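Listing S7. Sequence submitted for prediction.
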Amino acid sequence: QVQLVESGGGLVQAGGSLRLSCAASGSIFRIDAMGWYRQAPGKQRELVATITSGGSTNYADSVKGRFTISRDNAKDTVYLQMNSLKPEDTAVYYCNAKGSRGPRRYDNWGQGTQVTVSS
């Protein structure tokens, strides 16, 4: 369907910043939206931010004002700029792409990248 490759994770101190990127390749469908989700140990995967091909964005309440999602449609790439990081942001971050081909819907995930924020 489509391959998603995330990069940019790492270890930072509280208050620091990181920039994640996700590149999509080999798509057989039109990508309608891309986004970021995260999963901490013992917790369910949760939405962080999404962006449509038209530029509409959506953020989880916990990251509003601190994180910014952006995209480059020509490259089918999305970015997540994370500022003022908190220990509660520690999780594996996953890239997601949703698309369609006629009436068929697609939903694909990347392998994830670890983000760790120390106190």
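Caption to Listing S7: primary sequence and predicted structure tokens for the chain studied. The chain has a mean pLDDT of 94. The chain is about 0% helix and 60% strand.
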